Amino acid sequence: MRNSIGAAVTALGVALITAGAAIGENGREIIGGGAFFALVGVIILIPLLSRPVIALVRPLLVRAFGVAGKLAGQNAVRNPRRTGATASALAIGLTLVTGLSVLGVSMGAALDKATTDQIKADYMIETAAGGGVDRSALAALDRAPGVSALSPDQSAYFRVKDDYVAATGVTPGDVERVLDIDVVNGSLSSLGKGQMVVDEKTAAEQGWKVGATVPVTFDDGKKGSLKVGAVYEEGAVLSSVLVDTKVITPHEARPYISRIYVKTDGGPSDANETALVNALGKNPAISVMDQKDIRDEFGGQINMMLNIMYGLLAMALLIAVLGVVNTLAMSVFERQQEIGMLRAIGLDRPRVKRMVRLEAVVISVFGAVVGVALGSFLGWAIGQTIKDELPLYALVVPWDRIGVFLVLAALVGVLAAMWPARSAAKLNMLNAIKAE
């Protein structure tokens, strides 16, 4: 009966991994679903993975710790189901945290590259509460001393047939001075002629080429047409279509300006920043951000998300400690006679403690390694689904943080083994040998 259950569990795990691989092959948009099934399959197979994985490190334990290391390696896989169940708590927690760390660090690197490579402006103006900037701020900044170029990021949409296309209203002639726009075909000067500039991806999807005239329906329902004046390389800062603010503003009941980019004479300086603050009436609701602030703005939400997940990791570690303590306590209780015999033939108390501690460390690190491996895979899989939306996205593996996770897992094992190891070392040899 037990063999039948084990075979069924194995078959289920393999089926889930196979299904995940099949789903992942069907398209990037559902690769995340495939990764989920594959991860569930691996979690189910953890008890079977414990033997071969721990067998790889057993020679190192023997070489470093002698008899205590050999016994710890053997004891860790004596009951694979129990070992798997204990390691699973830590593996699941580290899967989530590692996956989000990989994803967060990769996205943060992409956004950081976007700000350093694409934003040439010395300052970015936003409202502190995250709402839109009033159009009066544009006129005020234009009159400020030291301002050489400024362009808003004015959000808009218009309809092309049945599709809604996101557009950004900018200031012709100034936008190329505050943002790095890599033109593939055509010229940015076409913006001043009331034409639109389209990124490569949108142009390919819509079949637009430079010189093509596109019928559009604006936000107020009025129809018109826009000519494609240039095609530019897709970036992470701008939307898919750029137009002159004069083209879209008449069709907006209340134009929404998410931010304003400002270039100043002489670059960033205290005098220029003070001039911008004064021009905006020293309004505390409006933030004047330099390049460092811009980078922090784009990466701040990701860092906040990661900090929350690290808090969840602390909870996962606490749960893992309790699981390892429970497993080792049961293991010591079941092996009283064996421990008594080992004591009788010469295994002293310090080595008994070392044996139990090493067993705990092996189980904890095993769960951590599985979690880190699965989390890295999960981070990669989710990244594949979003990299089309974040053109500068590239996988970045945070090896330093992964190293910290593994060290923390080892510490979990050491802390969890303190009470069981002490109990095992205090066993009376004669009573333990007589125990059934």
TrEMBL record:
Membrane topology term: Multi-pass membrane protein
Origin: domain of life: Bacteria
Keywords of the record: Cell membrane, Membrane, Transmembrane, Transmembrane helix
InterPro entries referenced in this protein's UniProt entry, alphabetically: ABC3_permease_C, MacB_PCD, Macrolide_Exporter_MacB
Residue ranges of every copy of the MacB-like periplasmic core domain listed in the record: 83-267
ABC3 transporter permease C-terminal domain sequence ranges: 312-428
Keyword Cell membrane: yes
Transmembrane regions: 31-49, 88-111, 308-333, 360-382, 402-421
Chief location category: membrane
Subcellular location: Cell membrane
Similarity annotation: Belongs to the ABC-4 integral membrane protein family.
Protein name: ABC transporter permease
